[in-house]
Design a protein that fits this description.
This protein is α+β, with helices and mostly antiparallel strands. Among the domains are: about 25-355, 3-Layer(aba) Sandwich (Kinesin); about 770-910, no CATH class. The protein contains 36 helices and 22 strands. Strands 4, 8, 9, 10, 11, 13, 14, 15, 17, 19 and 20 form an 11-stranded mixed β-sheet that branches. Strands 5-6-7 form a 3-stranded antiparallel β-sheet, with no helix packed on it. Strands 1-2 form a two-stranded antiparallel sheet. Helix 7 (about 265-290) runs parallel beside helix 10. The radius of gyration is 32 Å and the shape is elongated. The structure holds adenosine-5'-triphosphate. One of its GO terms (cellular component) is microtubule. It comes from Manihot esculenta (Cassava).
Length: about 950
Amino acid sequence: MGSIGGAELPKMEKTQIASAREEKILVLVRLRPLNEKEIVANEVADWECINDTTILYRNTLREGSTFPSAYTFDRVFRGDCPTRQVYEEGAREVALSVVSGINSSIFAYGQTSSGKTYTMMGITGYTVADIFDYIHRHEERAFVLKFSAIEIYNEAIRDLLIADSTPLRLLDDPEKGTVVEKVREEILKDWSHLKELLSVCEAQRRIGETSLNEKSSRSHQILRLTIESSAREFIGKENSTTLSATVNFVDLAGSERASQSLSSGARLKEGCHINRSLLTLGTVIRKLSNGRHGHINYRDSKLTRLLQPALGGNARTAIICTLSPARSHVEQTRNTLLFACCAKEVTTKAQVNVVMSDKALVKHLQKELARLESELRSPAPVSSTSDYATLLRKKDIQIQKMEKEIREVTKQRDLAESQVEDLLRMIGHDQTLRNGAVVGPHPTQQAGHTWEDEFGDGGSNMDEPYHLQDTTDDHSVSDSTYPLISIGKKIVRSDSCQSLEDTAFGPAEDTDDYCKEVQCIETDETRRENKFELHSITSGENEATLALTMFGDGTATEQQISTPAIGHREVSHMQDGFTYDMLEQRLHHVQRTIDALVSPEPDETSPPSLAAHLSSSRSMKLTRSSSCGENTMTGSSPYFGKSEQIESTPPNGFEKIFPGRPESVRRKFPPLNYSGAARLSRNDSQSSVDSAYTDDFRSQSIETSADVDIPSIQTFVEGLQEMAKQEYEKHLGDGQAQETDRTAHKFEKNTKDVGLVPMCEAMETSSDWPMAFERQRGEIFELWQTCNISLVHRTYFFLLIKGDPTDSIYMEVELRRLSFLKETLSQGNHTVGGRSTLTTSIKALHKERGMLSKLMQRRLSEEERKIIYQKWGIELSSKRRRLQLANRLWSNTKDMNHIMESAAIVARLVRFVEQGQALKEMCGLSFTPPSTRRRLLGWTFSISTLL
Ligand SMILES: Nc1ncnc2c1ncn2[C@@H]1O[C@H](COP(=O)(O)OP(=O)(O)OP(=O)(O)O)[C@@H](O)[C@H]1O
C-alpha cells in the first residue's frame, strides 16, 4: 500500500477495471466561531458540537420548538477546529481517491459568510500538496496533470483560467529545490491567486449594493485537477494502462434565499439564477436521497448538469456544510442542516477509471473470456438441480457484468480515439502555432465564445470586467539546466467541453451526451467548422502546455494533451483499424453479391433466375444508397475513397428495381444504435444524419424485430470482430504475430494487425489454401447442421466469407466456436450455451424456420413463391407450403447449389441487402477498394449460379 502523509492509499499497480463501489456521500459539518461583527452585536452562539458526530441547538428560549435539536453526521467540527483537521479527519480520504484513478468532489455548502471559501481554500491547498508528495514518492509512475477553474454566474459558465489569462509558470531556479517542489509551490500560489481574482470579480459585482448581504458570493466556483498516471516503463507503448481521474473543489454561492438577499430588477434576476442552481441542487439531492426513483432533473441548472457524476454517479463525494452559530442566522443554519441530512442519504458509485490501450483491452477481455470458457468446460460439481440453476444464474450475472464493463471501457476508448483523431487533425491545421510550444497570450474572448457554443446560454458575461490582462510576456522557461516546464492553464476547447460534462467529471452516464460529444466534433458540418475554428485558435498554442508529465524522481516533461504519451493507439492503427477494413471488404463483396441477387446483369444464356424474376415484379424503385453515404461523409471521412464511390454507386439515373421496399428506407439509411454496440462507436461520429434517418430506421427495425427474432447483421459483424480480436491475441500469445516491417503495404499492415500475417502468408503462398478452404468450409457446414445453428447466422457468414486467404481467421474462429458448441452439446450441457442469440437449441431453430415462413408471405409475392416452390419440388396444392420450404432451407450440407439457394432466400427474407448497406454506410467502414491481392475462391456468386 502506498501512503500520503501517513494515510494509506491503495497501490496504483493493483487497480484494474474494478467494479463500481457504491457508497454514501460523506457529509461533514463545520461550525465557525462568532465573527467580530456578531460579537459586537452581542450575538449569542446557539449551536454546539457535543461530540465528533453530533451538533446540538441549545436555545433554551425556544423550548417546545418543532424542529429537532440534535443532528448527526459523519463528522462535525467545532468552531475552533483548524482547517487542517477538517481536511485530515474529513475530506482527505475522498479527495485523494483521485490518485487511485477515482473521481472525487468536495463541496462547500452554506449561507454567506459561514466559511465556505475559508474552508475550501485550505482543503484545496492541502490536497494539492498531498498529491504532489505522492507524485514525488512514486518514481516508477509518470503523471499528467491538467488544471481548470470554472465559474457559474447567472447560469453562464466561464472558464476562469483562460479568461484571466495568467499562465501558471515554473521558475527555473535550481536553488529552489527539486522541480516537483517548485511546481507545487507555484500551483499552490496560483490557486490562491485565483481566489484573489475571484474576490475582485465579486467586489465589482457588489458595487452599489447596500443590503445586508452585500458580501454574499454571487457565483459558484469549481476548481478541478485531473490526474492521469501510468507505469513509466509503458509510456508510449501499445499495451499501456492509464488511470485518469478528476478532483473537483466546489465553492457554492451563499445558500440564502432570494427573498432575503435580493430586492428587485437585475439583482433579483441574478438571485434567481444563483438560486436556480442551488434550488436544483437541493431538488436533485432530495430526489437522490429518496432512492433515485424517477427522473432526476440534473439538466435544470448548469451547476447540477456539470456536477452530475459527482452527485449520483462515478465519483466519491464529500459535502462540507458550513454554519454560523449566531442566533440571528438560525433559520439559515437549519436550512443548511436539512440539506445536509438529505445529502447523507445520497449514494454514488465510484470506480477506478482505467484508460486502456487497445492491446491491453483485448488482452483483458480475452483473459476474461478464457476464464469463463474454462469455467464452462469444467463446472464446479453441483449436488442438485437447484444448485445447478443457482450456478447458472451466477454465471449469467457475471457475464452481464462483464458485458457492461466492456461497454464502459470501449466507450472510454472510443471517446479518447475521437478526441485524439480530432486533435491530430487540428495539429496539421496549425503547425506554426504548434511549434511555438509554450504558453502564449490567450484571446480572452475564446472562453465566452466556446462556453456559449457548448451550453447555448445567451447570458454571456463577456461584457463584464473580468478579463484581467496578462502582463507577463515571458511565458516560457528555457533554461537548459532543468527540463523545460510550463504548466498551462488553458484548456483545449474540445477537451474542455468534453471533459466538463463527460470525462473529467467521470464518464457520462447518458449515452446522449456521449453521442453529442462525438457528433459535436466530427459530424455536424456547421458545428464542426466552429469547432475547428476554435481549435485552430486555441490548440496550437496550448497543446504543449496543457499538461505536465511528471516523474517521481523530480524530472518533468511537457506533455501534449492531445497526444498523451501514455498508451494511446497510433494514428495509423486507428485509421487502418483491421476490423473496419477487413469487414468493409467483406461487406463490399457481400453487397455486390446481393446486388447481383436483386438486380442481376441480364445473362442471355442463362435461364431466367428467381432474382431476375423478383426484379421484374416491380412495386418500388430502389435507388442505390451510396448517395446517402456520400452525403453524410463527404469531406468528413478520410476513409471515403473516390474509387469506391464510383464502384459502388451506379451511374446517374440508374435505379434498381426492388419489390416491397418501404419508401423511407429507399431514401436514406439510418445510423446504428450504439447503445449496445460500443465497439463500433467510433463510427457514430459519422452518423450525423438527420434524426429522421433514425426514425426511419427505427420504424424499419421495429417492423423487422416485430416480425422475427433475427439477429441483425450488426450483431453478427460485432461477433466476428470480437472473435477475430480474440484470435489475434491468441496468435500473439503463440508468438506467431511479430511485427517486422512497419512500412509494409497497407494491406499487409492490416492483416498484421489482426495477427494474420503468418497465416495469410502461408495461405497465399501455399497451393494448399484452396483445398484447405474447401475442407474447412465443408466442416463448417456440417457443424452448423449438427449444432442447429441459426439459418440467419449461416447466411451472413456464408455471404461474408468468400474464400479470401484472410478469411481463414474467421473460419478458424468459427470452427473453434462450433467445435466447442458441439462438445458442449455432446456433454449434455444444452442449457449452458442457451443464452446466445446463435443458440444451438433445436427449438430455436424450429422457431426461426417458422418465422422465416411467415416472412415469405410478407416479403415474396405470390408469383415469386410459386417459382420457388416449383424449383424446390413443393407441390403447389400441398398444405403449409411456406413452412415446407422453410424446413428445407439449409438442410443439405453437401449440395453447394442447395446452400447457395438457401442463402439467397434467407438473405432476401431478412433484408440482408438493406442491413448490409446500412451497416456499411453508418458504421463508417472504410471505403477502400478491395485489395488486388484478394483471391476469391468458390463462393463468388452470380445470379445464374444461385437460382
Ligand atoms: N472556521 C473559521 N474560523 C475563523 N474564521 C472563519 C472561519 N470560517 C470563516 N471565517 C471568516 O469568516 C469570514 C467569511 O468567510 P468566507 O468568506 O469563507 O464565507 P463564505 O461562506 O465563503 O461567504 P460567501 O458565501 O459570501 O462567499 C471570513 O473573514 C473568514 O476568514
